From TrEMBL:
Record family assignment: Belongs to the CorA metal ion transporter (MIT) (TC 1.A.35) family.
Predominant cellular place of this UniProt entry's protein: membrane
Keyword list, A-Z: Cell membrane, Membrane, Transmembrane, Transmembrane helix, Transport
Transmembrane segments: 266-284, 296-316
Organism, scientific name: Planomonospora corallina
Claim: Oxidoreductase is one of the keywords in the record: no
CDD domains to which the protein is assigned, alphabetical: TmCorA-like
Subcellular location: Cell membrane
Annotated protein name in UniProt: Magnesium transporter CorA family protein
Keyword Transport: yes
Membrane topology reported for the UniProt record: Multi-pass membrane protein
Top-level division of the source organism's lineage: Bacteria
Listed Gene3D superfamilies: CorA soluble domain-like, Magnesium transport protein CorA, transmembrane region
């Protein structure tokens, strides 16, 4: 257990108490608690479930990796799966969060210490006057932090796509392989990111639809703001996917155009080379023909080779095939 907090009448009164005292704390109707678990063991999760009366299926899902972002409702509590996202270099990092929400308790389960829970705590403390609204306030701060982090992923991806668009017609063929690799990395990150970011609309929207059963009416505009952010994230992600797909398609079109140019040149040179091959083949026959064995035959074949080759070369050059 990393952190525990006890609020009474909206005021923080206690921190870092043992998890075994949670049941006693939540028995007070004027109090609510938050505690955080990082990479917990199965025994830790069983203890949490017993202290708060959590459904066994929710506890089981919290112990599994790579759950889809979702909101599950049980008789006594809600269970939320969400993902925090970070972009480091070309690598997209996803950190799974399992959240239990009861009437007067919020439990966060992190799969990795890479998620900065202290930043969430600072956000709560900055708006401590709103803590009188209970667990819904803590949940809003957590979800708002997660969704705001999505913009920190999309902004650099957007800038990388703009760079790829600018480089598309500027660099030479030697750079195209690196450009295509970067475009592929951006596309892969967007696909992974979309899987965890887009379902957050359903999570926050589901909380709003439950209304006063979960959210204090005073906090509804704050949750609506988070929901608007999730819509923005989803739309931005889809637009970036279209842009990077266009970049990849443009790369493919450039390769097709270059291949066509190469084929035209190869075909043109083959046609030019075919002229002397045809003429010398004709004059190499073992049968009598005009000029056979005479100097005139040699000069006639030479003139035809030169004239035919030059004419074909100029023809293909004029059509930009060479």
């Amino acid at each position: 257990m990393d952190r525990t907090r006890l609020y009474r009448d909206g005021v923080l009164v206690r921190e870092n108490f043992p998890i075994t005292e949670v049941a006693e704390c939540v028995a007070d109707p004027d109090a609510f608690v938050w505690f955080d678990l990082c990479s917990p063991t199965d025994e830790d999760m069983v203890l949490v479930g017993r202290e708060l009366g959590l459904h066994e299926l929710a506890v089981e899902d919290a112990g599994k990796d790579r759950q889809r972002p979702k909101l599950d409702a049980y008789d006594t509590h809600l269970f939320i799966t969400a993902y925090a996202a970070t972009l480091t270099g070309r690598s997209l990092g996803l950190i799974e969060l399992s959240i239990f929400v009861t009437k007067n308790a919020l439990v966060t389960v992190r799969e990795s210490p890479d998620f900065d829970i202290e930043d969430v705590v600072r956000r709560w403390d900055a708006g401590s006057r709103m803590a009188r609204h209970g667990v819904a306030y803590l949940l809003h701060g957590l979800l708002d932090h997660v969704v705001d982090g999505y913009f920190g992923v999309l902004q650099p991806l957007d800038e990388r796509i703009e760079e790829l668009e600018e480089e598309l017609f500027e660099n030479g063929p030697a750079d195209r392989r690196g450009q295509y690799r970067r475009a592929f990395d951006v596309h892969r990150n967007l696909v992974r990111f979309r899987r965890v970011a887009t379902p957050m609309r359903e999570v926050v929207g589901g909380l709003l639809r439950r209304g006063a059963d979960v959210i204090d009416p005073v906090l509804v505009p704050y949750y609506q703001d988070v929901y608007d952010h999730t819509l923005h994230v989803a739309e931005w992600t889809d637009s970036l996917r279209e842009l990077v797909d266009n970049v990849r398609q443009a790369h493919q079109n450039q390769q097709d155009i270059r291949l066509n140019e190469i084929m035209k040149k190869v075909t043109s040179w083959a046609a030019v080379i075919a002229v002397p091959t045809l003429i010398t083949g004709f004059y190499g026959q073992n049968v009598p023909y005009p000029g056979s064995g005479e100097p005139s035959g040699f000069w006639a074949s030479t003139i035809m080779i030169v004239v035919g080759t030059v004419l074909l070369y100029r023809l293909f050059k004029s059509r930009d095939w060479l």
